[in-house]
Amino acid sequence: MSGLPEISGIPPMPDIRKLSPYGYIPDTDVCILFLVLYSLSTFVHTGQAIRYRLWWLFPTVIWGGVGEILGWGGRLWSSHVDTVLLRMPFMIQVTATIVSPTFILAANFIIFGRIINLLGSGYSRLPSKLYSRIFLTCDVLSLGIQAVGGGMASAATTLEAGNRGGHVMLAGVVSQLCIITFYTILATEFLVRYALDRPFTNRTDSTPRSEMTQRTRIMLEALGFNTLCLVIRAIYRTVNLADGWGGRVMTTELYFNVLEGGMIVLSIYTFNFVHPGAFLPAGNREKIRDLELKKMGSEFTSPRNSTVEAPNR
After folding, report:
1. pTM (global) more than 0.70
2. Which of 161, 171, 10 is nearest to 87 (CA)?
3. Number of H helices, E strands in the chain
4. Which option is the CATH number for 20-284: 1.10.10, 3.30.530, 1.20.1420, 1.20.1070?
5. DSSP tag of 296
6. Span 93-113, mean pLDDT?
């Protein structure tokens, strides 16, 4: 009995896997699962943002969800023998999955800044307005570095060029990990000072202390869990990129699915279930707004910013 005839021109599966820029062929079912999960969360977030009129969720969590949809759509496109070697889907997934979590992290900074104003900004080492500006600016810089590195890596035609792009991405991810660490330290200090009722005594523009409600406590716990997921993902990405393009960590699909896809799914769904519109309700948002307006008014009416003319007699 003669053996099966060879099919010329089509390399065997092991060769395809070796030639693949992923180091494997992405699992189709896993890609569909994550694509559905991100699409559902992003759709719900859009409805929640409109319902609660929290428009800042669009350039943060929602945009992050859209990026993840694009990234996993690229991986799904690559999940076949005849498409895994295409450059376009690989470029999409590299760039989109590396930068999208940065937008979700930005939402953390905004939410915690509002909680600071709500509970009492005198317990924060930084004024809430400066707090948000510093971390959001650093987040944007980290995003830019990661995007540049992702573009370099996805457009690379050699392993050496891919590693150069990976090193740039690594710098962006490490800077993001440093941002998260610094943010966590300041947030922890704020909560400890609030619990001990030890405000900074040299603060003149502080919002007054308010008691922490159960909803605010749940929102803080959600922020903590969300941050933990982003930290785990950032550590994975750091090890991934430090291992080099084509290294064992980067070419193991299970690590990517669990420590990248899984962590960001948990992160984005956290804000679906513990939504700032519901757990920082309208009354609290109005209080925050009034406190911010009062602080702005005090800046204009302070002696150093205004002069009072004596009445004519």
Report:
1. yes
2. 161
3. 11, 0
4. 1.20.1070
5. H
6. 91
